[in-house]
Amino acid sequence: MPAAPVPPLSEVLEFLGWRAAAACLGLPPQVVFARRESEALPALMACRRCPVARRCEETVAPAESWFDGVSGGRLWRNGRPATGRGQHRDAG
Hints:
Helix content: 25-40%
Largest sheet: 3 strands, antiparallel
Oligomer: single chain
Radius of gyration: 14 Å
Strand content: 5-15%
């Protein structure tokens, strides 16, 4: 069976937009959408160096969507910032 054609990088970047620059790009969904800090740690660490962390939080709007997971350098549960020692707000 032949492999599916791979779109040109320019088309991928156009489709993904700012997400293409996200430091968490490529992390498994179970890490990005984890509810426990220990499971979300790779995503929280990625946020430290992420150039689009603020854009991520603005787009996801965790408080408005009852989001669970990592967005904008914080772990969210039911749209509220979860407390913990791995929370980082200096990204962005």
